[in-house]
Amino acid sequence: MKKYSCIIVDDESLAQDLLEAHLEKIPNINIVAKCHTAMIAMQVLNEYPIDIMFLDIEMPDLNGIHFLKSLEKTPYTIFTTAYSQYALESYELNVVDYLLKPIRFDRFFKAITKVLSLLNSNPTNLQTAITEQKNDYFFVKSDYKSIKVQFNNIVYIESVQKYVKIFVDDKCIMPLMSLSSIMEILPTKQFFRCHKSFIVNLDVIECIDGNQLLLASGDKIPVSKTLKAELISKIDHFNLL
């Protein structure tokens, strides 16, 4: 059984202990560290390959949301907090789950099962394997098959719960992946995450109409107000917009 590494980031020792007790019931997870601050967690992430991070939001010096935004490469992250008002922002960061304290084991188990499914379907060496290939395609598992996806054939990608829908020409492929993990695979010059739930192929954008993108396929997808300016800067090669 493959082991996955995990860190707990929370300024409350009791909250750390509860998560540790829950994790001890999951046989293939190894707790690398329990961190009381984001800065200590940063040191751990720099020193060790971490697969899973349980992250509190309200912490001294640097809160969990700002910490997560500062990371170039993030582990699969589950927010743990006593406050529900951060839920919307957490989904924009594409965290795997959002657990409210005190965390019951049944709710914890649902979240960790989701993470393990993502890890099993998207191994950590996936991006390395792709880099060693021609770098113009990748393979995903869907409907018990391994399906080749050419970058140039992707129109857009939509997040649907624990799956993503990859719209390729006239068909849709649904692998068990997160939007963040697939964004790590895609070439950033060609693809842009225009919304918390959508990635678009920049080559197929025909028109920006308000907060919608009209694609060459005839599809319309949303673009977040906060990301629209960044999108325009990526496609406006001659500074005309």
> How much helical structure, as a percent, in the residues?
25-40%
Q: How is the biggest beta sheet arranged? A: 5 strands, parallel
β-strand number:
15
CATH second-level architecture of the largest domain: 3-Layer(aba) Sandwich
- Record the strand order, biggest sheet: 2-1-3-4-5
Tell me what you see in this structure.
- The chain is of the alpha/beta class.
- The chain folds into 2 domains: 4-121, 3-Layer(aba) Sandwich (Rossmann fold), CATH 3.40.50; 126-235, OB fold (Dihydrolipoamide Acetyltransferase, E2P), CATH 2.40.50.1020.
- It is 31% helix and 32% strand.
- The chain has helices at 13-23, 38-47, 64-70, 87-92, 105-121, 126-131, 179-185, 225-235; strands at residues 4-9, 29-35, 52-56, 76-81, 97-100, 137-142, 145-150, 154-160, 163-168, 171-173, 191-195, 198-201, 205-209, 212-215, 220-222.
- The strands form 4 sheets. Strands 2-1-3-4-5 form a 5-stranded parallel beta sheet.
- The radius of gyration is 19 Å and the shape is globular.
- The relative contact order is 0.09.
